[in-house]
Amino acid sequence: MMRYIFILLSLFFSTFLFSQNSLKVETEYLKLIFIQQNKYLAADNYRNAELIADSIIYNNKINKTRASEFFIELAKSYNLNNDYGNSAISILRQQFLFADKTYDLLAKQMFFDACYKLNIKKNKIIEIYNLRKKTTNNFSNNMLVFLQATIKLNQKKLNKKIIKYSNFYKTISNDYPFWLHQWEFFNTIKIKNKKILPLIAFEKTHAQKKLIDYLSEKQQKYVLFKAEKYYRKNKAINQAKYYLQEYKNKNLSFFEKVKAFNQKILILI
Amino acid sequence: MKKILIILSLILVKSMVFSQDIDLYNIKKDDNITSPKIPSTMSFNEFQLLSQNLRMKDMMYAIIVPGYVHFKAKENKTAYTLLTLRTASYIGLGASYFSSKARGDKWYSGLINSKDNTNNIQITEDWSVKKSDVVVVASMVTIFSTYLYDWIHGQYKLQKKQNMIRYKYGIKLKLEQNLSSNIKFSPALGLSVKF
């Protein structure tokens, strides 16, 4: 009987240890492929590394030094394949969610380097990086600041990741800021990344206002038109009709009236 | 033409009979119901790639289905390019065959020793070729080259991907074992109360 209990206990401990080790293993593996400078191995491992990254974030009780080491290695790995958007987001994850002073200098250097290669202007990079001053000991607050920073990076490639993390954020906090709501809506209706950032009012709050209320007349018409198109294409006809009506209620030029008429026909088809 | 077809069919039958895919013995174990040991982070794509084997029958399938090996190696972009090229070549062959039939000509004439044939492509002063012959030759070359490329490059790609997957999970398993053997246990007691 004792023998079986011992075997069961060792099995239990071995599985426990394996799960604890996955972060360390992934970090070691990232180091190993970085030494080899093998682009293909690095690219092949991104999916696995992202799984670990997500588990660290969802868990968020992990040792900060170990998490930081992992995110720095992950950023280096992305750099191997010139994927600077993902490299920058890896650094942001480290700096905003698992800040560790040991890695501050290296992380800052790597973040600035990645942003330069993404053609982001220096003052914008500084603005994004300085958002880390808003981080506190509260993880949900840090998550929100992190989301703001990633949105300000304004990279189409990162949108899926931002949505994933914003969904996670909603599970840990009930505070839903206006700018995040705006970004999600604009992203859903497929507004181009280049045009999204000027539409977001980062400093505004809901205050019983609609998402497009802070926008100029021209921007409102653009968003309403895009929203109608998105919902029509996704067979959400009632929603499409609502946005078309909102669009029509604006002060339209002759050309815009023709466009609205055309949209109406498309809805009826 | 008939002779060639007979020879080709004989080769096909022979290779099928002697290939390793024909079971000449009873199957005693059903591989389909045994659960493989899969690392927990392995994706279905990786699992599918790792389960692929290139056999003699795949060589034959690749003759019929253009880009077959690349589809197997999940190189869809290349596979569809090969599919398009081979389909275009088949269409070219068919078109030249039926047009020559309609004209009552030979399908393929080769080099023609004539000077004043205006519909032909003049190669030298004395020799020319029919335009349809150029299509036939180009199509045949494309068919064979796409087949060879599909087989050789596809196999290389598949093996490369399989090696990467094996290396990745193999190393990680080894690292995991090393790390777990390095951990030292220290005796401790704990008490927790939950309400």
Task: Write out key terms for the chains shown.
heterodimer, A: 269 residues, mainly alpha, 13 helices, 75% helix, elongated, B: 195 residues, 3-stranded antiparallel sheet, 6 helices, 5% strand
**Strand percent estimate of chain B:** 5-15%
Total number of helices of chain B: 6
Q: What is the 3D form of chain A? A: elongated
Major β-sheet strand ordering of chain B = 1-3-2
Structural class of chain A: mainly alpha
The helix fraction of chain B, in percent, is 55-70%
Give the number of helices of chain A. Answer: 13
Mean pLDDT of chain B: 82
In terms of per-residue confidence, which ranges of chain A show pLDDT below 50 for 5 or more consecutive residues? 11-19
Shape label of chain B: elongated
Query: Uncertain runs of chain B with pLDDT below 50, 5 residues or more?
Result: none
Commentary on this structure:
The complex is a heterodimer of chains A (269) and B (195). Chain A is mostly helical. Helix content of chain A is 75%, strand content 0%. Chain A has 13 helices and no strands. Chain A has helices spanning 2-36, 39-59, 64-80, 84-97, 104-117, 122-130, 139-153, 159-172, 178-188, 193-199, 217-233, 237-248, 254-268. The longest helix of chain B has 52 residues, at 131-182. Chain B has 195 residues and is mostly helical. The interface between A and B is medium-sized, with 18 and 14 residues.
